[in-house]
Amino acid sequence: MVAENFEAKALADHWISHRLADGRESVFFADPGHAIPTEIIDDRKLDPRGEPGELRLDRLTGDWVAVAAHRQSRTYLPPKEQCPLCPSVGGRHSEIPTEDFDVVVFENRFPSLGPALGQIHSPELGAPITDAPVPAVGRCEVVVFTPDHAGSFGSLTDERARTVVEAWAHRTRELSAKEGIEQVFIFENRGQDIGVTLHHPHGQIYAYPYVTPTAKKIAQRARDHFEKTQTALLGEILESEIADGSRIVSRGEHFTVFVPYAARWPLEAHLVPHRHVPDFAALTEEEKDELAIMYRDLLRRFDGLYDTPTPYIAAWHQAPINDADREATRLHLQLTSPRRAADKLKFLAGSEAAMGAFINDITPEQTAARLREVSL
């Protein structure tokens, strides 16, 4: 993109938005005391963005399934010199058209949802059964934690971890306001055993045009509990875990980390705010300060269990955007790993994969004790 077509706006001194060569949005965030990059010019010759894939309704369960055949051609485990998440240096062009940055978020070049936005509607129960796909509207974004190709969120400095949390809050707020978006999901897949396709430290954000099955189930339980008790279900769970104490990993002024009573995975921990807050955008500055460090340190505990890095999925559960769910559903992290020993992974068996009926070979109390013992 030539300089005269550069589209940018800076609504605060710590972030700036611009457009990549094919029109995708890219947002740069700066650490405290750092400057936003000024030379951001993407002059690559990229193909125009394609149309969205399809959303198909599973008529048996009522769940939406995205069909995104175009993702078969996405980048897969490239060598460092071809990494699309490293800075553009020395004539090598990447997805980040500048020689240095702190944190950047950009629209995925191979999205499962989008680039178009819009609303979708599920057929009414009892309506004639048809196989009519709808466009897979929504938004998929990539969050790059650092310009360094090696490392992880767990190796970030205090300042950089805080900048990432600020980026999550910003994107949650922005995406929640877009047409048709019903849920914003922030997550990170770490490790080849989990299935990552890029080694560079990064996470993702999906903005769905529907409420996902897991979020719908959690929200329904939270609503039912709130209607009966006028209290938040996760708040009561947190109080119960604190009172018991055996599964607590760490506590701060604003957040607590614990291994849940009914943990499904051999390594699982939840990070929960003490105050009822629906999403990242609703956190105070003090809460974001503490969250950045407690989350970073929790990842270090996972890595400290063994001599090699632990694969994990970090899933940030935020309340769906509709008002009915926000007073009952609380923001929280569910961090899970299939690693059950230094050289063993848990694979989902028939009962778990087909029926969702999990069997855990390690007690949550044992897991919590091991995580507490890790030296940070």
Describe the 3D structure.
The protein is an alpha+beta fold and about 375 residues long. The chain is about 25% helix and about 20% strand. The protein has 7 helices and 17 strands. It has helices at about 160-175, 215-230, 235-245, 285-305, 325, 350-355, 365-375, and strands spanning about 10, 15-20, 25-30, 55, 65, 105, 135, 140-145, 185-190, 200-210, 250, 255-260, 265-275, 310-315, 330-335, 340, 345. Strands 1-2-3-6-8-10-9-14-15-13-12-11 form a 12-stranded antiparallel beta sheet, with helices on both faces. Strands 5-4-7 form a 3-stranded antiparallel beta sheet, with no helix packed on it. α1 (about 160-175) packs across α4 (about 285-305). The longest helix has 20 residues, at about 285-305. Mean pLDDT is about 95; it is low at about 1-10.
Shape: globular
How many E strands? 17
The SS-based structural class is: alpha+beta
What do the pLDDT scores average to? 93
Helix percentage: 10-25%
Distance between the termini: 45 Å
Could you give the order of the helices and strands?
Answer: EEEEEEEEHEEHHEEEHEHEEEHH
Largest sheet: 12 strands, antiparallel
Count of helical segments? Answer: 7
The strand order across the widest sheet is: 1-2-3-6-8-10-9-14-15-13-12-11
Proportion of residues in extended strands: 15-25%
For the CA atoms, what is the radius of gyration? 21 Å
Low-confidence stretches: 1-12
